[in-house]
Amino acid sequence: GAKVGGHLDPTGAKHGPPASATRHAGDFGDVDADAAGNATFAMTTDSVSLMPDRPDSILARALVIHARADDRKGSGGPAVACGVIALRE
Questions:
Q1: Distances (CA, A) of 19 to 15, 25, 29, 48, 79
Q2: Which of 16, 23, 44, 65 could form a disulfide with 81 if both were Cys (CB 3.0 to 4.6 A apart)?
Q3: How far apart are CA 75 and CA 25, in angstroms?
Q4: How far apart are CA 26 and CA 24, in angstroms?
């Protein structure tokens, strides 16, 4: 997860929380986990696409979970989980 690059930001926006009108397309907010490390996350957004070849596409991109809450400067600490987004065939 440390080598996947920065947030998805096809419009050159500032980093911000999901509720902000100005934010990176890939700014999805914080995920809270319980003491056992279990977490559930749900979000509705129109800032990303599953269409290939679009600048806002999340296909073949990584989703990274960081160790700490977002500091609102773009850092949540080291990556603790990472996965690549792909369509199921």
A1: 12, 12, 9, 15, 23
A2: 65
A3: 16
A4: 5
pTM of model > 0.85:
no
Question: Which distant-in-sequence residues (6+ apart) come within 8 Å of 24 by Cβ?
Answer: 7, 8, 9, 13, 14, 15, 16
Q: Supply 5's token pair.
A: 């690059």
The single-letter code of the amino acid at 44 is T
Using the predicted structure, report yes or no on whether residue 73 has a pLDDT greater than 80.
Answer: no
What distance, in Å, lies between the first and last C-alpha atoms of the chain? 25
Cα separation, 13 vs 21, whole angstroms: 10
Token pair listed for 50: 């599953």
